[in-house]
Amino acid sequence: MTGDKANYTMVLPVRHFRIDENQVAVESAFAEHLRMLRSRIGAGAEQLVVASPGMSRAAYEAGKKGFAVIDAREERIAFYTLFADDAALSTSQKLRLFRPVMKSLSALAKKSVCVHSGLSWDVWLPFEFASIVFALLAKRRTVFVVDIDYRNSAWMSYRSGEWSRRSYLLCKYVYDVARSLQVWVAARYCSIVLLKGRKMVEDFGAGRPNVKAILDASHSEKNIIDRESVERKLQALHDPDQPLKLVYFGRLTAYKGIDRCVRATAAARAAGANVTLDIIGGGDQAEILRTLTAELHAEAFVTFHGAMQFNQDFFRVLYPFHLLLAAPLREDTPRSALDAMAAGIPYLAFDTYYYRELLESGAGRVVRWPDVDAMARMLAHLAAHREEVAQMVEAAIVFARENTQEIWLERRMEWTMASALQSDLSSTR
Hints:
This protein is an alpha/beta fold. It folds into two domains: 7-218 and 406-427, Glycogen Phosphorylase B (Rossmann fold), CATH 3.40.50.2000; 221-402, Rossmann fold. It has helices spanning 28-41, 57-63, 72-75, 91-110, 127-137, 153-159, 165-189, 198-205, 227-237, 258-270, 286-295, 312-318, 336-342, 353-357, 372-384, 386-402, 405-427; strands spanning 7-11, 17-18, 23-27, 48-54, 67-71, 77-84, 112-118, 141-146, 192-195, 211-213, 244-249, 275-280, 302-306, 323-326, 347-350, 364-367. Helix 8 links the parallel strand 9 and strand 10. The chain is globular, with a radius of gyration of 22 Å. The two termini are 35 Å apart. Residues 424-429 have low confidence and may be disordered.
């Protein structure tokens, strides 16, 4: 971190890997977001500073196919390593880190024009929310972001069998209460509070102009499918001899319920539906999912691709697909739903809050959570009624065009500048 001018500082749990003094690797979609945010900040800050945990070389090597490299000197995006996150930290390790991390956050806040962070999920090392507290004490502007309505997740984890009753009760009545208190404080004291989901805005920020509902899109206008590719997709959809091409892309981790997507696809095939499923991404569930696919004798219609860079080539890979599958086992708000719409891909998902709210786009269907058979039946229905999918394809493109990352970043900048003006007017009274 260099220079005497104030920075725009983001304090996030997204890990980074330092290649050398200037070059840092991060997940590719996040890198594109940072570059676009840096361009929107302009001369308002010396540089964009990202304070986050460091990544081990082993983790970097395992996932580097999906990473992009940022040059701090050329792009004026600097990275500050709060602590090394080589593996799951023990409670005692977190307690030892607490004091030096808090000291770093206090120093970062004093050198910032604005601090951008969000909820702390870890009660032993709550560095995200602590950065907001230090920024408020230093009288800096603050942007507080919550990208998921977490309040139903404990119950869902309990009902799905992932958690014990004790874990459910502890989360619901201790941890979730602590998280809600953070949002309550932010809504009353932060410059801007951005919440994903109108229900959260109603519950925490009703009547408060600084609390806004957001769609945190990562796709750009340039990523949106071209008309020629749309016509090819629609032509394939209307050909009953061609399969309804399903896709999942993102992290291969247990709570995403990708195994349910595989099972639903296999059940739809068994019922006579002409469907295939492609899975794009990497993660700790990759081999488990491959094994499940073999057990279901689904290798002929389930294909694995591994992780891909988030760029225009990735979107071109997506263009031919017809339907995104999403089967989260707890509340989830992945950007992949909007990325899919940019590629002209509507979605079929379990009935969770995020996907239910996105139904207003006209580009989705939901089935009862977490009913695999219901998903399989809907797949069979859509495979037999391709005109419904075609209508959703067109609706998805319209929605994606109205909700690009550029549009939402401009909106956020306008809100932040308006809050700064209001703060300046208040200080002169």
